[in-house]
Task: structure prediction
Amino acid sequence: MDQYMDLFYSEAKEQLDILTRDLLAIESGSSSQEMIHEMFRAAHTLKGSSAMVGFPAVTEMTHKVEDLLGKVREGKHILSAKDIDLVFQALDYIQNCLFHPEAVDSAKTEELARKLADIQDQPAPANGPADDSVAKRTAQLAELRSRGTYKGKATEILVTFRPECAMRSVRFFLILNNLKEFGEVIGSVPAWSEMEANENAYEEASILLDWRQGSRNDLERALNVADVRCIEIRSGDDGNEAFSAVGAAEPPTALPAATEVTVAKAAAGYRGTEAVKTPAADLASQGDSSHRPTEYIKIEANRLDLLMNLIGEMLISQARFSRIQENYLERHGQTPLAVEMAEETHQLARITTQLQDGLMKARLVPIGGVFSRFPRIVRDLARKQGKKVNLMMEGQDTELDKTVVDLIGDPIMHLIRNSVDHGIELPEARRQAGKPEEGTIRLKATHEGSRIVVEIGDDGRGIDESKVLAKGRALGLIPEGQTPSRQEILDLIFAPGFSTAEKVTDISGRGVGMDVVKRAISSLHGIIDIQSEPGQGTAFQLQLPITLAIIQGLIVRVERESLIIPLDNVLESFQLQNKEVQSVGGREVFSVRGRIVPLYRLQDLLQIPLDPEKGRRKYRSVVMVGLAERRMGLEVDSLIGKKEIVIKPIKAPWLNLEHFAGATILGDGRVSLILNIGAIFRRGAGERLQN
Result:
């Protein structure tokens, strides 16, 4: 079974993510019947796959969760707050069994399983109007089923509207009217008149149809109404039922790129019989080819890495070939062979670029996979501290390289935990400050050029700069008598061991969280910016490269050497006059929008010999680079230009090459070294301490 384990772990994580996401939605009051079905299917799938690969503990616990969700789906149980906590405990147990077996407490296993079994024996008490409405709807639907007489095939249709859908009663009326072509509409919950009176109160509706004529393909087309998120058809004939959920299309004027088709693999429906699996391809073939679902395959990341390396070699060869073509043109002019070489060189460059873009897109994954675990973290932390926190997420579809996705989860998690613990105040304190009791944390991802920007902000108390400065002086990070800028004070929180917490807890106080963030972002050649206003909140902005395999680089000249600075670390470039450069403590600095930035000659940092014939220039070429929260100006002789480069590792441990992240081959065949900006910052800091 070893060959299937990687696939099992990947799919198990997906199922756990679905269960966690939907359970959080139910707790927040935004549940739907389709959500319950989705959770049931996820638990059913995880139970079966874990039994197949030999995880009996996971199988048993998942079976308990599935049984409970089955009761909820049938309307025999309503999840209370206590029940939701218990299911979360079960999901934690399952996750530990799969990914952290050393953390499993066997003594608590039987107790947890017993509690899950106990709550199924009695209906949960109603907690409010939402629970009452669910119970009422279940009763109305049961009454409809009991009085239905069928001349054709008993069919139940679940309609789920999009959250932004306007005039839901009109959409519902169109569906009911279209269904008359296929038989008799026995009734609906809610009735159309109820929805017309208060349409915003209903996110979904159920219809009972006596289906007498027409094909399934025709029925699906009749249900294809704008602003309907999902239509689930449950049909029964002689006790055999087949269920499928078909994503509704956009308005007829818009052709969707793909139609989402969910295959129901678990038991569903009002007769309690087992669902028949309907392949997505079969459903798609019944409709127009424009509704064909997007097909996906899974592939090992190592294979993509190999292809990326080969394309990197191809880029280098293409650059060399372009250089050869240029040399030939310079020597022989516009001969027929030169023209043919130019055409083929252009074609090769175009194909190489397309190959690179295609593979880069294949390596891109949505950042939503990382974001999905944070609502649970915020929920647990807020409950533990007695706070009310709402996590708002945007840009989950923003894509970046899988390598980067795997590495940014921890720093974002630390920043969110920091916002809950240090940023958001207790409800009483927020009331006294004139704020709503519930604090808000915003997590947003966007693309900006070749970078992805992740913003984590809260509307909490903000950073107390005087407290941070006092702690910085106490730790010796700020010498007495020196007055740092506001930005330098905020940057102190990234210092190792720095914490303003008055007591150490299991969440904060040890001074390692923000240091972890800094090191992780530095390893990705990223940048951190902080903005904070007392009493209004704090915002962190992470700027990260989309990929680490093939990067954009700025080629600079220092004496006779061509060096490359990763463009993700380049913030700005300047032509400074000598009068714009000041001296502070024996070190050259310059000012950028009120921020003091140290200036270093790259030639001195790398100990490149000075060319005695080089004259003194009136202007100084400076490249300002950033790493995490730090900034530095690097003086170079000239800027040559931007180039897409393939990073090649330097395997020479006997050489001291810590200042270089690797090398690349330029079009003329020369090797150019790529600067390690992290090491350059450390070298600059070392010189400052030495001076």
The two ends are 62 Å apart (CA to CA).
